[in-house]
Amino acid sequence: MAKRMLLMLGVVVLLIAGLGFVKFKQVQTAIQAGASFQPPPDAVTSIVARQEQWPGTLAAIGTVEAVHGVTVSADLPGTVAKITFESGQYVHEGDVLVELDTRQERAQLAALEAQRDLAKVTYGREEQLASAGVISRSEYDQAAAQQKATEANVAETRATIERKTIRAPFSGILGIRKVNLGQYLAGGAPIVSLQSLNPVYVDFGVPQQELGRLKIGQALRVTTEQISGAVFTGRVNALDSVVDEATRNVQVQATLPSPEGRLRPGMFAQVELGVGESRNVIPLPASAISYAPYGDSVFVITDMKDPKGNAYRGVRQQFVKIEGSKGDQVAVISGLKPGDEVVTSGVFKLRNGSAVQVNNTVQPENNPAPKPEDS
């Protein structure tokens, strides 16, 4: 009985040992297969780096501002009696825009003019009597003062009537009308905006380290997405006297013509300022750059070997310095050399040594002067 149990126990031990050995060999085989496994190459697009000469420019983002721009408002309270303009109309300096009701002031003016005429007659009479010594000097002075007071009252009322006729302070284009006939306006109530649209200002900021490269009268080019294909030229007319503590930028103001008022206040503008000699750069599509806080980089395609010595096409991460952009392109000024093959799309999934397969059937945009279809 004991021998039978020992025999059964030996068989079980042998069976377990055999199963364990088989499993060990399977795991060992899997580890070896994993060590030698090569993931499939990533599909990417590429471009061969080439050197170009770009003019020394400084790019900035600005905003169009009117040289003259105000909201015309009522100087004094009153009821709108007449409106002589239409929304969006061009007006000249001095053109009447709105007339407020002045019937009460005109009635007051008639009464004051009558008082002034009486005071003038009384003053003349008192002057003759004072010359003859009939009245005292104080009575004569009172008549003179009364005449001047009535003249001042008449002038004040006339000024009030004039101020209730609201005129364009300068030539420009009106905005949307904000008043209606018969409406009561409080003092300071807005009537319509008025903007002088030729010429215009463009205000933009530049980093403080670029301040030494700027000067009054410097030429610049301005483009805006709202007016496709149009390029406006102007000159710097003012540099701010302080540096913004929050952004460390200096505000710059330029003046440029705006034919037919095409540039409107508030428009977003792209400014290109010439600040020096031309420089050699390697232009790449913006999609080729991997931006990171510790430095910008690209992936260069090169011939590599795996641990077994097998050759393959892989990528090497290369840190670069970029400075400036033009359309879809960014300018690389160091870190690359002409002839390097650079990955232009799919950089987010790559790492050093990754195998790649180049397929340039569809490539990212690389146009220095793109013209979007919906612009």
SSE map:
Blueprint: H1 2-35, E1 42-48, E2 52-73, E3 78-83, E4 90-91, E5 96-100, H2 103-132, H3 137-163, E6 165-167, E7 172-174, E8 184-185, E9 190-207, E10 219-224, E11 227-243, E12 249-256, E13 268-285, E14 297-305, E15 311-319, E16 321-326, E17 329-334, E18 341-345, E19 356-358
Parallel strand pairs: 1-19
Antiparallel strand pairs: 1-18, 2-9, 2-13, 3-5, 3-8, 4-7, 5-6, 7-9, 9-12, 10-11, 10-13, 11-12, 13-17, 14-15, 14-18, 16-17
Helix pairs in contact: 2-3
Description of the molecule:
It is a single chain. This protein has 375 residues and is an alpha+beta fold. It folds into four domains: 42-56 and 279-358, conserved putative lor/sdh protein from methanococcus maripaludis s2 fold; 59-67 and 193-277, Efflux pump adaptor protein, beta barrel domain (Elongation Factor Tu (Ef-tu), domain 3, Beta Barrel); 78-101 and 165-188, RNA polymerase II/Efflux pump adaptor protein, barrel-sandwich hybrid domain (OB fold (Dihydrolipoamide Acetyltransferase, E2P)); 102-163, Helix Hairpins (Orthogonal Bundle), CATH 1.10.287. The chain has helices at residues 2-35, 103-132, 137-163, and strands spanning 42-48, 52-73, 78-83, 90-91, 96-100, 165-167, 172-174, 184-185, 190-207, 219-224, 227-243, 249-256, 268-285, 297-305, 311-319, 321-326, 329-334, 341-345, 356-358. The strands form three sheets. The chain has a six-stranded antiparallel β-barrel with strand order 2-9-12-11-10-13. The longest helix is centred in the first third of the chain and has 34 residues, at 2-35.
